[in-house]
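Entry type: protein chain
Record version: 2
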Amino acid sequence: RFDVNQTPEWTLYTTVRNVDFYYRIADCSGRKVVLMKFNNRNAQRVKVTWKEVFNTQFEAQKEGFRGTKQLTLPTGETSQTDCANIRVKELVVLPSQVNPTYQADIKRFNFKNITVVSL
């Protein structure tokens, strides 16, 4: 169950070419997941690419095994606010997506190799 009252605040990780990259680590049915939010403050759509880096119970600075993710963002905010209704799968990282060999307990999250290209 997703408890709205215990929702942690979004963390602004960085801003690249007028796109704000946010994340938060949330609890979904007892598992830690990463939710992401992007705010495209440009007048046109952009394509963003990024890699994900995690600290887990076994590893520090572990790059996600799924490699580079990409998403086309309309002007304004694109976010995944909970794990109940996943609309944009790129905006949610489940514990099984960090490392295929164990169920990760996600402690920290960072973006890496961010690019923003105007469309």
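Comment: The CA atoms of residues 18 and 50 lie 15 Å apart.
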